[in-house]
Amino acid sequence: MPNISVRAALPDDLPFLAACMGGLQEAEIEIEANRDSVEASAEPHLQWVLAQISQKEGTVFVSELDGVRVGCLLCTVDEDNGEYVKPKHRRYGYVNDLYVGDKARGQGVADALMQAAEDYFRGKGLTNMRLGVLSENKRARAFYERLGWNSYEQVYRKIL
C-alpha cells in the first residue's frame, strides 16, 4: 500500500504548483479548444487562484506519495448570490483545481486530497462543496461520482 500524505502547501512548493497547473492545462487542451498554451497560462492561472485563496478563506494542499510531491488541490470558500438559497447553505467550499501527476494516478492520491478539502470545509462549518468539471472530461466526472458527488447545476454554452 502506498504511503500517501497530504499537507498544507509551503512557499517552496510554488514551482511544483505551477507545474501542476501546467499539467491541468495540458489535459484540458486535449478536450477543450478554447484553452491557451501551458506557457501562457499555467503561472498566471496559479497566481490568480492564489489571489482568490487569500481573499476567500482558501487553502492549498499538496499530496506526497512515498515522500515525493505528486499532486495538489486548491480551494476557496464561496457564497451563493441572492436570497434563493437558505442562509445556512449559502456559503460553500469550492475546489478550484485538483491535479495528480500521471504516475501517481489510481493510487488514492486524489481521494486523499479531496478528503483533506472536505475536512477543511467541514471545519469551517460549511454544509456543501462544489467544483467545476468539463463535460468531456469523463475520467474526472467518473472519479467525482465515485466519491459521491452528483450534478448540481448545468452550465450551457453556445459557440458563436
What attributes does this structure have?
alpha+beta; 160 residues; Aminopeptidase; 39% helix; five-stranded mixed beta sheet
Number of strands: 5
Task: Determine the structural class based on helices, strands and strand pairing.
Answer: alpha+beta
Mean pLDDT: 95
Q: Point out poorly predicted stretches.
A: none
Rg on CA atoms, Å: 16 Å
Q: What proportion of the residues is helical, as a percent range?
A: 25-40%
In terms of quaternary structure, the protein is single chain
CATH superfamily membership: Gcn5-related N-acetyltransferase (GNAT)
Give, in order, the helices and strands. Answer: EHHEEHEHEH
Number of helices: 5
Summarize the structure.
The chain has 160 residues and is an alpha+beta fold.
List the helices and strands and how they pair.
Elements (H helix, E strand, L loop, with lengths): L3 E5 L5 H16 L8 H18 L3 E7 L2 E12 L7 H4 E10 L8 H15 L5 E3 L6 H9 L14
Parallel strand pairs: 4-5
Antiparallel strand pairs: 1-2, 2-3, 3-4
Structure, explained:
With 160 residues, the protein is of the alpha+beta class. It has one domain: 3-Layer(aba) Sandwich (Aminopeptidase). It contains five helices and five strands; from the N terminus they run βααββαβαβα. It has a five-stranded mixed beta sheet with strand order 1-2-3-4-5, with helices on both faces. Strand 4, helix 4 and strand 5 form a beta-alpha-beta unit. The longest helix has 18 residues. The termini are far apart. The model has no long low-confidence stretch (mean pLDDT 95).
